[in-house]
YcjX family protein
Amino acid sequence: ADEALIAFDTLTDRASNLIEPTLRLGVTGLSRAGKTVFITSLVHNLLHGGRLPMFQASHSGRLAGATLEPQPDDAVPRFQYEDHAARLIEERLWPDSTRAISELRLVIEYESASGWNRFFSGGRLCLDIVDYPGEWLLDLPLLGQDFAAFSLNAASLARSSARLDLATPWLDRAGTIDPHKPANEGDARELARLYTDYLRACKRDERALSTLPPGRFLMPGDLDGSPALTFAPLPNLPDTPAPKGSLQAMMERRFESYKSVVVKPFFREHVARLDRQIVLIDAMQAMNAGREAVIDLERALSDVLSCFRPGRGNLLTSLVSRRIDKVLIAATKADHLHHESHDRLEAIARRIVDRASKDIGSSGAHIEVLALAAVRATREATARQDGETLPVIVGIPLEGEKIGTESFDGNRKTAIFPGDLPLNPDSFFKAVDSGSQAMPPDINIVRFRPPMIELSDSGVKLSLPHIRLDRALEYLLGDRLA
Ligand code: GDP
């Protein structure tokens, strides 16, 4: 049935693509990775003629303009571009982050370099941008698990050294409950709450862990409080089957509902219809949190990439990913580093991606890696300290940010030495693999306010400054504007 529905959607999309060339671009990443900021900056730069030298269509002067038009899917919320852009540009504050799926259609008018495209599409490409939480993508592996396997995986991850202290309240309480006792809503709710609290604690800055399924527990969208989300793994499942009416039977049923009414429709209706995908990762935050966070990011990326490179023998995943031909993994917030470190960040991200793709299928989408800042909040400068010249970045730290004992009020321009990433990723990953806690890079991550937008000579506001956004656009859209 899934196959038929996906095939039908694909046919419908193909038919409308003939009339109106369309590219469906998925934008995902774990919460706070930078999806909202990325989409806002991408759209702003295309609407306002941003400086995009590595984006061929723009560089060669073939971009004629871009406009926002009504999106094709009436049942999906619209990405609130105007609100996000106003907050970034007028208030110079970061917009509200992604909490559920949303969509935006940007129509790009261009002059085709090829007569063929000019004839058929008149140089118009509908770019449908689909924003959704990466947490939801990490649910795909659940489709291949029954409740017992899910419980076993969840419990062994919870007992790992990076998580045990955070998981203890849930593990302890779950350990006192007999899975075969009669089902009751109170137990289900308490266990679901304790399990969600544990996942939430793993996500916080100090741990910055990434693999935290079920994805809707952290990002419920509109399903908050529904029975399909009121379950939890049971860590000490007996070998005997669940008696009818038992807590275990209830949890099993809800886990199955979660898969069939939440996970599957999401993949079928949304992911399966994407043509291209960008996955944003906050590699610097993971590196700063330590080796466990880096390993966990690799594990999450591996799950994400196996959605797009399914390998053999996995029917649903291969259905889901059939259409996507290019995936870009982008390490975000590169403006936290001096430009000397941008290539290093890219090299580290590439290595993380290589390590994460070891066990995934080899056919499927082409994967590229990039370091970027969708919005550049800092400028570069040099400072002299103890007779040495140091590369620094200058920006206005957000209200409430602290460096050492100094705290900021959100108005003061400040130079900080961001720290260096290792020149050679080998040393970094050697430290990760050897289990040594002291990891080489020590980056100062200070959160800055969004930048002031400069005015052109004629007094017009220019577009949002960025780092390497043009390269991302070239990879994701370049060939469709040829
Ligand atoms: P989402 O949860 O993936 O939608 O994440 P957001 O787009 O809301 O970004 C989360 C936070 O990361 C923002 O509030 C900013 O503080 C920061 N951020 C995101 N992108 C950038 C960037 O390009 N540069 C800088 N300096 N900060 C960024």
